Amino acid sequence: MNRSKKPLPHKIALKDKIYISESKSLKNHWVHCRLLRQGFKPGSCLVHYRGKRYPACKVTLKWKDNVPFRLIEAAHLSRPEHYFSIYQSGCNFNCKKCHSWYFSQYAMGNWYSPKDIAVLAKEYADRVTVMEPRNRATSFHAHDLCRSCGHCILTGERSPYCPGKLEPHQIISSPQGLGPARNIMAFTGGDLACQPEFYAEATREIKALRKNLWILFETNGYGLTPQVLDIFQEAGMDSFWLDIKAYHDEVHKRLTGCHNDWILRLPEEIKRRDFVLEVLSLFIPGWVEEDQIGDIARLIASVDPKIPFTVLAFFPEYQLRNVPSPTLNQMLSAYEACIKAGLKSVRLGNISIFIKTEKDFEILTSLGNQAW
Ligand code: SF4
Ligand code: SF4
Fold it and tell me: Is 156 exposed, middle or buried (0-12, 13-18, 19+ CB in 10 A)?
């Protein structure tokens, strides 16, 4: 996902040296991989640090006095999600299409403890302008509140596409533009769900402050083993935005470095534990097209047809710079495949990538307000 490079609101001194694996070789490290110990395989998690590559849990996570610290690249109110996003460095995947590669694949940022996250949460809670119920602790539902056009603030009148639900005093500025501030804190960027303690403890700290500040985890799903899901459930985490990167295992492996067999079981595992769930997939021409997106939609619909699903348009980045973006027709065919699969809440995202003319926009809006 695209995330801004704006500086952190709270800098923490980088006085602590980043801890490198005690083991001399990576081979030794895998013996201690948390996923391996649960019968899963390690992620494709080697992150650049000082000219070498180390497992993400060794250079972007550290423990000090029994407290977990995570390397955070940025943290601020994000658009178009209209929630507070914590952008983490280091990831258990190495996706060829990663839009956050400069911090997900390179160790960078500042160390945050769960208590430091609670400080951010406390400040953010005072700025919240929209209280959402828990079932709307999603990115999907941001779009039926505000399109971030800023029309009402700048001209005093709503734009023709304004959902008409908010008052101007609920629209505030953030590093990524204008919009509301919803009562949601999200972990995004690099994903280390395979090491759950930092997130679980941060969730507990936030919930101790405000029970109705919802905690959302944007995830590739790889670290969400049954044990980790149980830990997150017990801690009070609310919601997952699951990025299913491909339906075909061979494509998933080439794209991310890892298999997807467990990930395809996650919609059921997540819903069974009463988390809020939304799913996204990226339309990548030649890699993940309408057929696989239709398969993913069928899988989601078999669990619950009301699970929101976003199909995002790919744009060239990182190791897929030579792959084109999808066209409007390709995105429309993916949308139809999702509706045909039985899903009730489907939207197309990153519309500026595939909407080039007014006519294109008319075609898109003819699908209805929920579809974009
Ligand atoms: S980052 Fe996750 S997958 Fe990689 S070695 Fe550490 S625990 Fe295992
Ligand atoms: S899971 Fe997300 S952050 Fe991690 S490498 Fe893939 S796209 Fe990047």
Answer: exposed
pLDDT at 194: 98
* Beta carbon of 98 within 6 Å of any ligand 2 atom: yes
Nearest CA to ligand 1 atom 8: 33
**What whole-number distance in Å separates Cα of residue 131 and Cα of residue 213?**
9
Query: Ligand 2: does its nearest atom lie under 6 Å from the Cβ of 73?
Result: no
Ligand 2 in contact with 95 (CB < 6 A)?
Answer: yes
Euclidean distance between the first and final Cα of the chain, in Å? 17
Per-residue pLDDT of 236-270, as tens digits, reads 999 999 999 999 999 999 999 999 999 999 999 99
Residue 292 has pLDDT above 60, yes or no: yes
pLDDT level of residue 11 (50, 70, 90 thresholds): very low
**Positive or negative CA dihedral for 144, 316, 277, 107?**
negative
Nearest to 372 by CA among 83, 152, 98, 161: 161
Q: What is the pLDDT of residues 270-288, one digit of tens each?
A: 999 999 999 999 999 999 9
Contact 76, 181 (CB under 8 A): no
pLDDT band at residue 25, thresholds of 50, 70 and 90? low
Report the separation in Å between the CA atom of 230 and the middle of ligand 1, taken as the mean of its atom positions: 18
Q: Average per-residue pLDDT in the chain? A: 92
Atom of ligand 1 nearest to the CA of 45: 4
Question: How large is the C-alpha radius of gyration of the chain?
Answer: 20
Residue, of 10 and 370, whose pLDDT is higher: 370
Look up tokens 């997150």; give the residue: 232
The alpha carbon of 368 and the centre of ligand 2 are apart by a number of angstroms equal to: 31
